[in-house]
Amino acid sequence: MMPGDSSMASLVQRIARQALVTFRNTPAVGDEASKSFLENHGKLRSLMSEVRAADLKLVPRRAEDGDAPPAQHPYHRGAPPVTYMHICETDQFSMGVFLLKSGASIPLHDHPGMHGVLKVMYGKVRISCFDRLERPGGGGDALPRAEMGALRRYVLRSTGEYTEESGPCVLSPDRDNLHQIDAVDGPTAFMDILAPPYDPDDGRDCHYYKVLPGNGVKDSEQTEEVVWLMEISQPPEFWCGGEPYPGPEVCL
């Protein structure tokens, strides 16, 4: 195969190349996306819609394949509830596969200044998406001053279930940027692209949150549910292990 020949390239290779093109020039946070970016992002979503577990040589797992049933929670440290298969990474994006055991969750977390595309490979996930609600000027919030640094108002944008037949789930710096991902009815896996990758040294660390109970509000001007989120440390029941990626090699 010639270096520029995409006709023989694996689907995962074509996805990686499109991600590289798409995220080479991402719009700055708050800026309107260019026509070129939107077109390339559409091509990337289209390719991600096509990918299946077989394209990555993933064998769907069952709960009995060494997978703890939902009732056996929290998980012991010898068996991480979530594992990650690294496929590739550049300065522009990272690509890999997350695998969740039965009953596992990736807790509510953010993606500072990042874009993302997620596609389920097998099983089913429930994804709840949130965004920061900018407080109108001049309004006060009835919370103790000592808690204001840790508490923020967010909007619950959506909660939906996704399978391998679903289209990709997409996030951006200003839309659906926080999410929680839960395995539903057994083990599940999804392919994940983040652009740019997490990098604490460049202001892109991962922060975890919890929804304060009993605080959801809807009013006449707000059709989506408004909630208070509190930033927390990484939950002790969640940690992520690693395992080898079995699929086609990606060259960039």
TrEMBL record:
Keyword Oxidoreductase: yes
GO molecular function, one term: oxidoreductase activity, acting on single donors with incorporation of molecular oxygen, incorporation of two atoms of oxygen
Database matches in SUPFAM superfamilies: RmlC-like cupins
Keyword Oxidoreductase: yes
Signal peptide limits: none
Top-level lineage group: Eukaryota
Protein's recorded name: 2-aminoethanethiol (cysteamine) dioxygenase b
Keywords: Iron, Metal-binding, Oxidoreductase
Originating species: Astatotilapia calliptera (Eastern happy)
Recorded GO CC terms: mitochondrion
Pfam families: PCO_ADO
Cross-referenced InterPro entries: PCO/ADO, RmlC-like_jellyroll, RmlC_Cupin_sf
